[in-house]
Protein 1
Amino acid sequence: MTVHTLTIDGVERAGVEGQTVLEVARESGVEIPTLCHLDGLCDVGACRLCVVEVKGSSKLLPSCATAVAEGMEVTTDSKRLTAYRRTIIEMLFAERNHVCAVCVANNHCELQARAADLGLTHIELDTVNPALDVDASHERFAIDHNRCIMCTRCVRVCDEVEGAHTWDVMGRGLDARVVTDLGMPWGESTTCTGCGKCVQVCPTGAIFEKGRPIATTKVTRPYLPYLKTNSQEVSA
Amino acid sequence: MIRPKLATVWLDGCSGCHMSLLDIDERLLTITERADLVYSPLVDNKIFPDDVDVVLVEGAVSTDEDLKRVTMVRKRSKTLVAFGDCALTTNVPGMRNAIDGGAAEPLYARAYGENVTAVVNGVVRPTHDVPHHLPRTLPVHKVVEVDVFLPGCPPSADVIFDALVALLDGKKPELPVGTHFGG
């Protein structure tokens, strides 16, 4: 087990080979904002909110997908990083139709919370306002693409934990959508087990349980790392 | 001592922000002791004065009438506060922007045509003496310069009161940590 020594915000820290900068930072009590990351799921660096500055790199690096290395010097908080993170959140709001006031996840939403953390009071960018569908064909759940931020947590939990791989991503850029069974209506999916893990991991109100009034969707997630570890031990 | 002039304006919103303003309860007296409320849906003055110090603007800019009013209000006010989510993000009034890009005709067809059976005096929907929709609903800062943003649907009474006190002292209000869109 190789241990690397690095500095995070000027303080010396140690991380094991293969650990990410985000993991080591959080173990040391340094908070880096994230959206697509979720403990228990693989990291994909989709949202870029966790970007950090690493000495020697002119680019910002996603801390969730950057492995620690010997002598690394990481900065997790700066004016530049805050500006980038605010713009990322603004772009997420501008890209689809997020109406917090009438959302099932109002007050339980990670996008809303990160916007508040960053002191976002309005959207300077022009909003896209795309016409997006709501698929309510599933008996118990529904997806409102207006509220989706393409974090792909649903795709990953369905594949990595449930093993069904009902969810995937279709299209690119602004046209990217999460889809069930190659784009079939969710209710007609032959692979969906109806486990509801995608509902539990969705950071916004995009995937939700039917029949929930505004602001009442509260999710529970702590069981994910447990399930993941268990399934790995079983298959090993 | 000249008391600052305070005004409030109601564009395309549900009036919930004004209700939340009333929710500051007895602290309304503190505000009225320190400022004159010269124009508002809550008072009877029909003309927006020329020299307002602080104006709270509730609602999004949806119609030609909203546009005319907010432009006039900007010209006549020193500090303009975008008051609540509709003013900041267009919120619910902006949901029409996702229907045919916000175009008015499909919107009217949906609101006044689909499933409507009532016809009053031979008219299905009024076209005279009513404001006309802009091509899309806009947040206030896309139309005029905004000095202060107060998020919330509605902003809480405490946020409103603290912001008003700061503004009447001529200071820029500091929002409490965690102030967010939505309720």
Protein 2
Amino acid sequence: MSPAARNIALAIAILALATSAFFLQRSQVYLLSLCCVYVMATMGLNLTMGYAGQMSLGQAAFFGIGAYIDAILTTKLGVSFWVVIPIAAVACFFVGLALGFPALRVQHHYLAFATLGFNVLVYLVMRNEEALTGGTFGISNVPRPYLFTWSLDSERAYFWFTLAALVIVAILMRLLLRSPWGRAFAALRDNPIRAESLGINITAYTLLAFAIGAAYGGVGGVFYAGLVQYVEPSTFYFTTSLMMLLAVILGGSGRFFGPVIGTVIVILLPEVLRSSSSPALQFMQKWYLVAFGVALVVLMVWLPGGLLSIGDRRARKAAA
Amino acid sequence: MNRTLQGLVMAAAMAAASLAVAQPIKIFGLVELSGTGAVSGTNFNDGVKLAVKEINASGGILGRQVDYQASDTQSQAPIAKALAQKAVDQGAYVVMGPVFSGSILVSMPETRKAEVTNFTGGEAASITQQGNPYIFRTSFTQAAAMPKVARYLHDTVKAKSVAIIFVNNDFGKGGSDAMVKALEPYGIKVAANISTDPGQVDFSSAVVKAKQSNADALFVYSNEEESARCLRELKKQGYDKPIVGETTLTSQKVIELAGDAANGAIAHVGLSADAPQPEVQKFSAAFQKEYHYKGDHNSLKGYSAMYFVKVMTERIGKVDTKALAAALHGATMTVKDNPGVLLDVSFDQNGDLDRVSYMTKVVDGKQAIIATLPAAHTK
């Protein structure tokens, strides 16, 4: 497919998705919004992990920081949602830098443990600093924003809003990956020594990828808080980081649409499985999490490179 | 032509109305069946299911069967919100749960918007402080239980000062804070407020501090195992003032672990599967038989909540969720007339619940009721 044809197809798909909100139930539209929100965060994780090759188990912490910044600023200080987005992005960028500076001295699973530790730390702060974060009971009644005078209170309006925001951050990500920075990220993932010999400052670029990935997590968190209208610490525990990691790997780490596909599967597949109303699938209502687990195992064994590697696999078979 | 159309519409409306009467009453459970809340959620859910089974076997509510559908929130707040929307859109008469305070805080705005009555097992104070007219508790909170203990300390023990030993986790700290607040209006001084750690083994220094405070009574508020250790140490050091607790202190587990040292301990008991009331014991036996495990206070919550729905719906005489919520505020239900509610209960204007509860004392290694405490609002 030519790039132009691909762009048109993509635009049609997005429009179709937006239109689908008219035909779906409220709770289904809400789940679609939840997907969009998580895709923002997993897209950031894909940059850190898939493109720059840094294993992170702390994405939920940045997601949580963004969500809490929104909850605290909008409920306690009445700051506008529109102001909160850049604040959260910048804050997470710098927290990412601050964490990355010491943590990125180590690689792979050591880095995974360092970021996991950071995630637990952030969780404890959320739970214990009651005066600021509301402790175990969190912060409720987080307001949804207005677009000029148009209230985004309904599920449908908020879904379109989130979808539009996702398209914008996705385009920004695409531009970033096409820029010299993006090429540098891929270079240091594939062969750090060669990258360095070509004059790429490894430390700086790794840090940058990590911090930008964190900022994406933070922006996702802001939209999450607006969507669910409530934040509590347990949502941002490291199990959520694992879920995000799963989404990236499942879809295809290092592929642009990998996190999109992966997140859609991780969030929607359990819901689709359990709400299937056909009598043959009745048993799914009880077994949906088991079926989900089995499906994941089968997929990973069959396609270790993620779902999007299916094309490569076919090509390889055809060549052989 | 117009006449025919009118007739058709009439017929269709009547058919729809008669269909509505025959249709079962839809009740949705949003419960934690997997994840961190699985134990609480499963207990709550099984309690509701047992009540539904009994109600349907005895002819349903106002002659209509109850159709109870439980969905798993996976102990996740965002999923709970989606499920609440789904329940509301599918025409729920009542929504049961979630049990986790975090989840109910997310899902209750949905039931509120749709004006659907919603029972919760959550105990966070903020749930009923938002002026939501559709939310109702199924148990009382520490903030409601402690004033009863305080009143007992004032009226019966005639204590002028009290020492407190509590476990420093969210349970113990919340209870201790509520107790300090409850003692204030009675002018009872807190002579010592002694913090202990979860899992603490050695209580000697805590007991020494309590003795040195020279208070007229001691309030012990901790988990079962720690309570037992504390009682043993109190006996060892020959503590001779009244020892009072709340729910855990005289529970069967503590009595087993503390042995002789538990004798004489006094505690306020609200909802407990071990409670001596015949209705509760009958429930416990039925629950054990049905699900092959011992129910806990969350199963009692779910079970009694389902009976609240039955009793109040029959009282208002129609299946109307808005009217149900309105009628529940200020309502009182007695065990005498409705055994399913297990303990006499009344709701206040916030949806907080109040029950008659009991002061219990350990006598010869058994929990015995020494006083029946009236509900807090009947001073």
